[in-house]
Amino acid sequence: MAEPGGRSVVVIGDVMTDVIVRPEGPMRRGSDCRATIRRLPGGSGANQAAWLARFGVPTRFVARVGRADHAGLSEDFRAAGIAPRLAADDGLPTGILVTLVEPGGERSFFTDRGANDALSDADLPDDLLDGAAILHVSGYALVAPGPRAAVLRLMARAKAAGVLVSVDPASAGFLADIDPAAFLDWTAGADFCFPNADEAALLAGSTDPATQLEHLGARYGTLVVKRGAAGAEALSAGRHHIAAAPAVAAIDSTGAGDAFLAAYLAAHLGGADVPGCLRAAVAAGARICTVLGGRPSALSGA
């Protein structure tokens, strides 16, 4: 049961190993192209948990990984200030993601979700919600039918216990695969929803920002739309708020939405109003775009 005044966040999401490829010039199909290639820890849910911990929020992170990586990843999360609740899978490897970063920071992804798609009720016991203020669910946890059913049951238990529920659609590509209308049905009534511009367009069936706010804002307590370099906007309690993004020299937008979301929730738990939460969020999202990689550790040399 949630404790009054609790500040902890439980994150349900994915663990991935990110292989980031940043070509130095145009791709040459069938031949070589010099590139910067880095192997980094990733996964939207894992990134969000890392950023929440960076912002001082007590954070529990729940996911499923390959057995061979379980001990090492658990230790890595603990070192980042996160309380890991990782299940070890004997048959599937930890997920892996190849990211192709274009000039200007836009990305394309090639994803093998591995053990993430085997998350089950056994990985989500009732004590996960003890003392929690917010349950945050990455949309990637809703992609496969098995994890989806388990996570939706946990979301219902959270609402019954008075724990706020936050969702992030996570991927326009996966939204298109699973049907945007279904996602809206699964997540309607969540206290927070954080789509980016492409996800908002799919979910609302419109590229018009005003239509997106009207259509989606009726389904969530607070709707926050991430619009990249154009900043962000929110609709909460019938009031519209806008925050501009600071100008930065972007080299990689990996993790920008995750840092944004974590900064918003951290500011909310700290008592900030919606405009204050938006300002904190756009600042965090912009800063991580200036380095390669999506975790707080990427900023150590920035």
Topology:
Elements: E1 8-12, E2 16-23, E3 35-42, H1 44-54, E4 59-66, H2 70-79, E5 82-89, E6 95-101, E7 107-112, E8 132-138, H3 145-160, E9 164-168, H4 172-178, H5 180-187, E10 192-193, H6 197-204, H7 209-217, E11 222-226, E12 232-236, E13 239-243, H8 256-269, H9 274-288
Parallel strand pairs: 1-4, 1-8, 2-6, 4-5, 8-9, 9-10, 10-11
Antiparallel strand pairs: 2-3, 6-7, 11-12, 12-13
Helix pairs in contact: 1-8, 6-7, 8-9
GO molecular function, one term: kinase activity
Pfam families: PfkB
InterPro entries: Carboh/pur_kinase_PfkB_CS, PfkB_dom, Ribokinase-like
Kindly describe this structure.
This protein has helices at 44-54, 70-79, 145-160, 172-178, 180-187, 197-204, 209-217, 256-269, 274-288, and strands at 8-12, 16-23, 35-42, 59-66, 82-89, 95-101, 107-112, 132-138, 164-168, 192-193, 222-226, 232-236, 239-243. With 302 residues, it is of the alpha/beta class. The chain has one domain (8-13, 43-91, 119-301): UDP-N-acetylmuramoyl-L-alanine:D-glutamate ligase (3-Layer(aba) Sandwich). Helix 1 crosses helix 8 (256-269), helix 6 (197-204) packs across helix 7 (209-217) and helix 8 (256-269) packs antiparallel against helix 9. The longest helix is centred in the middle third of the chain and has 16 residues, at 145-160.
